[in-house]
Amino acid sequence: MGKLTTHVLDTAAGQPAAGMSWILYRIDDPRTEICRGRTNADGRNDGPVLEGTAFNCAIYEFHFDAGGYFRKRGVELTDPAFLDTVVIRFGIAQAQANYHVPLLVSPYGYSTYRGS
């Protein structure tokens, strides 16, 4: 079986985004919360987000609490914040593959890609 991992980098500070909360949803009708967590000191989850029998082909969404992370760091944000919750919708099409969904984020922009 495959596995899903994530990694968050604070591109404004040039460091891992330690302590950022996230929620993973499976997109079906209705949307289902699968799990939630917080990044460690390296900006990663302590282990795979999904693996084994929980790892299924489907459409998912990561919801990253970027606004909360930047506020805790003392970054002055607009009210409302330009980026508060960053949502990344992605599909898992291969049950035997590994999927890595990184987030590179600043208070005013983000990017992602399928990592290895």
Question: What does this protein structure show overall?
Answer:
It contains one helix and nine strands. By secondary structure, the chain is mainly beta. It has one domain (3-112): Immunoglobulin-like (Sandwich), CATH 2.60.40.180. The strands form two sheets. Strands 1, 2, 5, 8 and 9 form a five-stranded mixed sheet that branches. A four-stranded antiparallel sheet has the order 4-3-6-7. A hairpin with a 4-residue loop joins strand 1 and strand 2 (15-16).
Helix and strand layout, with pairings?
Layout: E1 3-10, E2 15-16, E3 21-26, E4 32-38, E5 50-51, E6 58-65, H1 66-72, E7 85-92, E8 98-106, E9 109-112
Parallel strand pairs: 1-8
Antiparallel strand pairs: 1-2, 1-5, 3-4, 3-6, 6-7, 8-9
Produce a short descriptive summary.
The protein has 116 residues and is mainly beta. It has one helix and nine strands; from the N terminus they run E-E-E-E-E-E-H-E-E-E.
Q: Please tally the β strands and state the result.
A: 9
Alpha-beta classification: mainly beta
In terms of DSSP E residues, the strand content is: over 45%
Q: What is the CATH third-level topology name?
A: Immunoglobulin-like
Defining traits:
116 residues; mainly beta; Immunoglobulin-like; 5-stranded mixed sheet; 4-stranded antiparallel sheet
